[in-house]
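Lab manual, section 2.4: Encoding a predicted structure.

Procedure: take the sequence of the chain (439 residues), apply the prediction step described in section 2.3, and record the output as structure tokens. A sample record is shown.
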Amino acid sequence: MTVSPHRDLGRLFKAYDVRGVVPDELDEDVARSIGAAFAEWSGVEAVAIGRDCRLSSPSLAAALSEGITSRGTDVIDIGLASTDLLYFASGSREVAGIMLTASHNPPDYNGMKFCLPGAKPVGQDTGLAEIRDLAERHGFVSRAAMRPLTVVADTANGMGGLVVPPVFERLPMTLVHLFPELDGTFPNHPADPIDPENQRDLKREVLARHADIGLAFDGDADRVFLVDEHAEGVSGSEVTALVATAMLERYPGAKIVYNLICSWTVPEVIREHGGVPIRARVGHSFIKQVMAETGAVFGGEHSGHYYFRDNYRADSGLIAAVVVLERLSRSNGPLSEMLAPFRRYHASGEINSTVADKEAALERLDAAFTEGRRDRTDGLTVEFDDWWFNVRPSNTEPLLRLNVEARTPELLAEKTAMVLDLIRDHDPAGAGAGPRREP
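Recorded output:
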């Protein structure tokens, strides 16, 4: 899991190696970043790591290995070694190598020397500058970038109870953990945070603890929903826009995928920050496919799924949460203030209607809104200058799922009622709204 540490590595990278004071200039976070960058730059299958006897070498070697393996590259740990022994391993095994050493510098220093297979040296003009740039861009979260926030996390007796605590143990934050015990009966409330009713405990605790943010994870922890310091819900579109700014800071000009029920805000923010927005169908298989085809670095869905290229394009609520915490730490203000620029429009949320003939209803809507910009990528989307709607059929139930967004709350109420009337009044099933469901 990677986000930018916002640290200038220029002082560490010398003409032929990396060298600096531990931990002020070189620490485990920086070592992970450099390991990932070297593996990505070199494209090798394996890297041999040797280390000298400095007290900082074992922990830096472990972090360096984590960074290298995060890019799918194998590590050969040769342990304590002289630099010439590391070079011999590189030459005899035809693998790249990194030697953790600061040579003759004082004990509080450490550093790295790099070589390609065959002990071919890597210097400033033969790759070290590119490795530095990659390390700065792809660095891991640094605890130094975090401020001491109070975070309430409701893992709802699901798998978040397993993975959330180890992450927060490494962050300088106060974690208030609700329902951490793993219990498949989900005794406190359903592990489905898309339903606001299941966020009641989280919101109450955020207010009681004067917390900076609340995190609600679903049962398998691949989704996360946020509430701000006022216990007001944060939409998935707002989180997508916020995380997109972080990704574009790290990958300038990158492509970002969003699904077609995300707010207009999302593509606007992506473009404003120099990125390329790519619209996709709702659902993890479609998002992942588009990311693979386009090389997109990030994908977000309004339903709380967030996908990261560096996590094999898989969705992770925990990674998204840490990215948000890093942005919040840098903002020096409350979450609501940080999100204000992304709260541009008014949305209905997903409204489900029971419909006997879903295709007939879609055709009815298509015919009723011929003056709008229409497409059938996923159900029916119709856009106007000041509002839009999407209606998608459920794959498993006789339901149509409606999402509406408008520039004013009055227009939102008017247009939502208009579309719902067309969906329901002409259908023999004619039922009201069904339950909210994850797409």
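Check your result against the sample. The chain has a mean pLDDT of 92.
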